[in-house]
């Protein structure tokens, strides 16, 4: 079974600085997707960024980028120029590229932005 | 496009009562997923449905929980004889296309928080 591990329950960063959130996963599949979701206090799950395993290039969305290391099964999220609105729980998630679109989530990292 | 709509946002039930949570997927989406989030935990998959069919219920507790997605109307997650351990946030997500469609991304609703007294 696939597992997703987020080893940092909490992180904090000074506003405008850069922070990296860690995620590792375990799978025997070679074709899959990885995601980072943001959950602010409103509880809405918001997709931040997505990576396709067969693409070597790391995904980037504005201030958000990932470091995808397929051999190491690592998928970290880097947030540059942190803003107060980035404060939230961040969840890493895995989905195989076959069968249904069921996601396996990590336990989350609570990110605090220090003004 | 109103997005994925879940109601109620908050539901309080006493032990032994029934809870019904509703989910209307995004317009054009015919695939619905239910997830449960216990306090301070990530989301855990419960069930995947298409119209009138349960496709994958591997994450659903065997007793007291059921889900449906009728031809007309919202998807319903039903919890009978609720216990305190059922207190959680229940999220619905929808998808537009069939599985194996690669780039599909689930769109989540805002969740329904169930509190069992």
Assembly state (oligomeric): heterodimer
The SS-based structural class of chain A is: mainly beta
Shape of chain B: globular
Largest sheet of chain A: 6 strands, mixed
Give the amount of beta strand of chain B, in percent: over 45%
Question: Could you tell me how far the N terminus lies from the C terminus of chain A, measured between alpha carbons in angstroms?
Answer: 41 Å
**What percentage of residues of chain B falls in helices of 4 or more residues?**
under 10%
**How does the helix and strand content of chain B classify structurally?**
mainly beta
**What share of the residues of chain A lie within helices?**
under 10%
Low-confidence stretches of chain A: none
Strand content of chain A: over 45%
Strand runs of chain B, count: 11
Order of helices and strands of chain B: EEEEEEEEEEE
Description:
The complex is a heterodimer of chains A (115) and B (117). Chain A is mainly beta and 115 residues long. Helix content of chain A is 0%, strand content 52%. Chain A is built from no helices and 12 strands. Chain A has strands spanning 3-5, 10-14, 19-21, 24-26, 32-39, 46-52, 60-61, 64-69, 74-79, 88-96, 104-105, 109-114. In chain A, the strands form 3 sheets. In chain A, strands 2, 5, 6, 10, 11 and 12 form a 6-stranded mixed β-sheet that branches. Chain A is globular and about 45 Å long. The model of chain A has no long low-confidence stretch (mean pLDDT 93). With 117 residues, chain B is mainly β. The mean pLDDT of chain B is 91. Chain B has strands at residues 5-7, 10-13, 19-24, 31-37, 43-50, 53-56, 65-68, 75-79, 88-95, 107-108, 112-116. Chain B has no helices and 11 strands. Chain B is globular. In chain B, strand 7 and strand 8 form a beta hairpin. In chain B, the strands form 2 sheets. In chain B, strands 2, 4, 5, 6, 9, 10 and 11 form a 7-stranded mixed β-sheet that branches. Chain B is 0% helix and 48% strand.
